[in-house]
Design a protein that fits this description.
The complex is a heterodimer of chains A (115) and B (112). Chain A is mostly beta strands. Chain A has no helices and 11 strands. The termini of chain A are far apart. Chain B is mostly beta strands and 112 residues long. In chain B, the strands form 3 sheets. In chain B, strands 2, 5, 6, 10, 11 and 12 form a 6-stranded mixed β-sheet that branches. In chain B, strands 3-9-8-7 form a 4-stranded antiparallel β-sheet, with no helix packed on it. Chain B has a two-stranded antiparallel sheet with strand order 1-4. Classes of the chains: A mainly beta (115), B mainly beta (112). The interface between A and B is medium-sized, with 28 and 23 residues.
Chain lengths: 115, 112
């Protein structure tokens, strides 16, 4: 099993450009998440999807959109990149049952620089 | 509002010393989960432990132990006889209502 995979690993964008970060998991997890990690800030939740077909905003959703394409895939789109979106982006997935949340499995991260 | 505070930004210890990483959380929800993750210098995030709000039993796993106290809203992590491989950033996280809230992390350096 590959676990959680993310593409690309690195990306440099110019201000105003758009791009989509891809994430896939092969663990049959219901829930998927996108985080950003900035120095001194820990991980902050951007969007999450509790199940196929649903998405919800996290703590820092502005400037991002997401798509839960199917149970395996959850993409994050930056429509018009800004330097403030320079960060490391992590995708994660977790198993959930009614009333219980289990640990998250994280992808290797995407290091994005916006100039 | 939900919040996780890891007041210790950086800690250095000499190998074989014990070290405790503090985590204090805030939530008004009665049902929630607490987690610890490790992020070694290679950058990946590794799950260490999960605890739900109804289970205050302390847990020990090898050199690692966790102390959950609802009365003080704390979920502290102790490494006994630290090793160089324990050098990493450690994150405490709170889950409630399908949302996860991470602390800012504690960077642990174990000096040989």
């Amino acid at each position: 099993n590959a676990g959680v995979t993310q593409t690309p690993k690195f990306q440099v964008l110019k201000t105003g450009q758009s791009m989509t970060l891809q994430c896939a998991q092969d663990m049959n997890h219901n829930s998927m998440y996108w985080y950003r990690q900035d120095p001194g800030m820990g991980l902050r939740l951007i969007y999450y999807s509790a199940s196929e077909g649903t998405t919800d905003k996290g703590e820092v959703p502005n400037g991002y959109n997401v798509s839960r394409l199917n149970k395996r895939e959850f993409s994050l789109r930056l429509e018009s990149a800004a330097p403030s979106q320079t960060s490391v982006y992590f995708c994660a997935s977790s198993r959930t049952t009614s009333g219980s949340i289990y640990e998250q499995y994280f992808g290797p991260g995407t290091r994005l620089t916006v100039t | 509002a939900q919040k996780v505070t890891q007041a210790q930004t950086e800690i250095s210890v000499v190998e074989k010393e014990d070290v405790t990483l503090d985590c204090v959380y805030e939530t008004r929800d009665t049902t929630y989960y607490l987690f610890w993750y490790k992020q070694p210098p290679s950058g990946e995030l590794v799950f260490l432990i999960r605890r739900n709000s109804f289970d205050e039993q302390n847990e020990i796993s090898g050199r690692y132990s966790w102390n959950f106290q609802k009365s003080t809203s704390s979920f502290n992590f102790t490494i006994t006889a630290s090793q160089v491989v324990d050098s990493a950033v450690y994150f405490c996280a709170l889950e409630t209502g399908n949302q996860f809230y991470f602390g800012t992390g504690t960077s642990l350096t174990v000096i040989p």
